[in-house]
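Hi V.,

Quick status before I head out on leave. The structure for the redesign project is tokenized and pasted below; the design run finished overnight.
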């Protein structure tokens, strides 16, 4: 609708006619002279059309601008939030890098647990795991101290049903340890999970990712046995391979993105190049 020559009312200048307008400004001829206003903002406070059709048109334009402004404001808010989160992640990486440099990383500073059926639910509820107790010697009955486990470590949780062979041991999930944890200083035997980096697999996913595809005893590569012991130390590269393979299991885009973030973080704190990880070559590959 052409608004030129349409009559308007102004609170102070009285009646006037539209001379010209564009997407930003509108020029109106009043008895006191021509005046320019911001368009269409001025119609929210100062100006009104005497023609109802013109008033309806301008109302639609004003409402559209309001929606666009609100959407832009929301977009900028989200952008600022993402930028803030990115800065926080960078600061966290710098902090973890300093920690990693201060503590020489052991090539097997990961840990894998044999989880009994009756404790699995509680582990994923409390997000911590007990290392067990020493069964002999002077320290018998005291909690075990996982000396190699530090801020760069992850706990791998596995299980094997009593009616299946050891080779079918499943991976249930994993978590990074709390970033203030030190295995050498652990006195109660509990390893707490990191607040962000924790993952539980569905039953269907767990059946597709078997522990022995990754783990191998280099002295006995064909041997697939876990007869005793609550936990074993685990190679950093093997843990990275598991995380990489979990990414391919995830069909949900958000879940996949989360595991990718977990994977990148793990490789960063363990000084692993994500592009140079070898393919898994666990004991199942040697059969």
């Amino acid at each position: 609708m052409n608004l030129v020559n349409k009559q308007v009312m102004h609170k102070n200048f009285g009646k006037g006619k539209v001379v010209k307008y564009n997407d930003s400004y509108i020029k109106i001829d009043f008895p006191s002279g021509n005046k320019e206003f911001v368009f269409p903002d001025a119609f929210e406070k100062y100006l009104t059309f005497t023609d109802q059709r013109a008033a309806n048109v301008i109302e639609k334009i004003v409402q559209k601008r309001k929606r666009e402004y609100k959407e832009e404001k929301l977009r900028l808010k989200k952008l600022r939030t993402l930028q803030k989160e990115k800065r926080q992640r960078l600061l966290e990486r710098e902090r973890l890098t300093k920690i990693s440099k201060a503590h020489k990383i052991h090539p097997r500073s990961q840990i894998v647990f044999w989880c009994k059926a009756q404790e699995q639910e509680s582990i994923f509820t409390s997000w911590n795991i007990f290392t067990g107790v020493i069964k002999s010697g002077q320290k018998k009955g005291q909690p075990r101290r996982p000396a190699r486990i530090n801020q760069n470590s992850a706990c791998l949780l596995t299980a094997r049903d009593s009616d299946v062979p050891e080779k079918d041991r499943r991976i249930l999930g994993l978590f990074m340890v709390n970033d203030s944890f030190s295995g050498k200083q652990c006195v109660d035997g509990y390893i707490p999970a990191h607040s962000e980096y924790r993952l539980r697999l569905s039953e269907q996913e767990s059946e597709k990712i078997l522990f022995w595809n990754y783990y191998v005893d280099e002295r006995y590569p064909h041997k697939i046995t876990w007869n005793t012991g609550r936990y074993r130390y685990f190679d950093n590269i093997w843990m990275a391979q598991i995380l990489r393979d979990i990414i391919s299991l995830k069909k949900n885009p958000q879940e996949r993105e989360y595991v990718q973030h977990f994977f990148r973080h793990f490789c960063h704190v363990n000084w692993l190049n994500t592009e140079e990880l070898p393919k898994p070559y666990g004991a199942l590959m040697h059969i």
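Above is the designed sequence. The chain has a mean pLDDT of 91.

G. will cover questions while I'm gone.

Best,
W.
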